[in-house]
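Reviewers of the previous submission asked for a worked example of the structure-prediction workflow described in the proposal, so we include one complete record here. The input consisted solely of the amino acid sequence. No template or homolog information was supplied to the procedure at any stage.
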Amino acid sequence: MRGWTPKGLLRLAYDLDEQSVNGVPIGAAIEAARALGRPDYLSSGPDPDMSYYRLGLQVDCYEGEIVGFRLVLDPVGRAVRRDHSFHPGRIILRGVGALEFEVSPATHERDFIARFGQPVETRTVGNDRVQTFLVVGNCIETFHDPSTGLVVEVEFAAAADTTQPER
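From that input alone, the workflow returned the following structure tokens.
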């Protein structure tokens, strides 16, 4: 990450067809994240996760590749203290021939269901209700505050099991 310059990105977009955030695709070498600028925080280890606090974005890495993206919409409500450093994230979802869909701290679980249909799985993780949606090769996991239904975090990854019906 040495030599990576800060970027003045203000808006994020996730392309469902390309499985990418602002042109940085899942499956690309870690170096591809250079397009997002220098991260504010790197986790330790050979495959550091990169946190962009001002964007509410974490880039997840494994074995030298980008394996997913995590958007934190309610940093103060997250259980991990380091997550409190994020600003509330916002992202535009594009693709699958649909109109753009903005995900923000005001997004409710019913907004995802209206857009993508019923989740393929719903479970509880910690204090969150988690719903999994499979959308054109993407696995989108939405974490919700069970008392309000508001989305507090979203994770984007490539769908590992494409035998389940996709929307």
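The CA atoms of residues 17 and 45 lie 31 Å apart. We consider this example representative of the routine output the project will generate in years two and three.
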